[in-house]
């Protein structure tokens, strides 16, 4: 496993980051979750990402239990706040009340005194940005948070936060952004990536496999294979349904010879592709089985040739989405190719 600096900060994270959205506490039982976490540790993964909203907090509980007994200083734990965790008007957003209460609840569930990275899960239009940044800063000063990040913020929102942080103080400055990014969904490339490179903000990207579509296991004209995310229970089929379609599945199958040429599995090819990009510190993987973790972690340190990168672009062609207006919330916009 290789590690990269988290932007311009002094924190280093593993190139492959283990995440538990839609798995721990939802579609994967505790025994399987623990086995996956152990496989991650065995592969050299040190960075783990979760959120207060995943399985309504249960994902944090399961992750904390799976990591129990591991030397805390050897890990980088990241979680998030903003999305609804209850039915009350203050059970969401980035108000001082919700940020502080949610952080304390996450620490209890994770069984730790601090998190290394605390991220604003989305931008909150209802709360003054200064209130949010000061609340984050208070958590940093209290030793409960080491670094501050955001997720799925637009370039304009990140820029506004940076300007305000410079006025308020350096400990409130964002060091990381967590966007969706993969071969098909590249909406951060026109605006978010250039801004973050200039400002020393790292990207830790999620969905490098496009919900499993880029693994090549879904075939055009065929039902989802048994045991796959699309054939499972819970919310997973609803999310992956947004990116399934024969047009994209056919094009993905044409990537298989490129993976073979590189000596990689399809999943490793997709993950290595995301890590090729300057400014990206890590790619978040999820798993339901330990062998998936082992396979995906092997993408660390892989360097794709310019010829393979060019062939990927040529193969996917017009299916690639680079529209920066879709940065704000991937769940609000269905890619044009998803319905094909």
From TrEMBL:
<keyword id="KW-0560">Oxidoreductase</keyword>
<dbReference type="GO" id="GO:0005829">
    <property type="term" value="C:cytosol"/>
</dbReference>
<dbReference type="InterPro" id="IPR005399">
    <property type="entry name" value="K_chnl_volt-dep_bsu_KCNAB-rel"/>
</dbReference>
<comment type="similarity">
    <text>Belongs to the shaker potassium channel beta subunit family.</text>
</comment>
<feature type="domain" description="NADP-dependent oxidoreductase">
    <location>
        <begin position="15"/>
        <end position="314"/>
    </location>
</feature>
<dbReference type="InterPro" id="IPR023210">
    <property type="entry name" value="NADP_OxRdtase_dom"/>
</dbReference>
<dbReference type="InterPro" id="IPR036812">
    <property type="entry name" value="NAD(P)_OxRdtase_dom_sf"/>
</dbReference>
<protein>
    <submittedName>
        <fullName>Aryl-alcohol dehydrogenase-like predicted oxidoreductase</fullName>
    </submittedName>
</protein>
<dbReference type="Pfam" id="PF00248">
    <property type="entry name" value="Aldo_ket_red"/>
</dbReference>
<dbReference type="InterPro" id="IPR020471">
    <property type="entry name" value="AKR"/>
</dbReference>
<dbReference type="GO" id="GO:0016491">
    <property type="term" value="F:oxidoreductase activity"/>
</dbReference>
<keyword id="KW-0521">NADP</keyword>
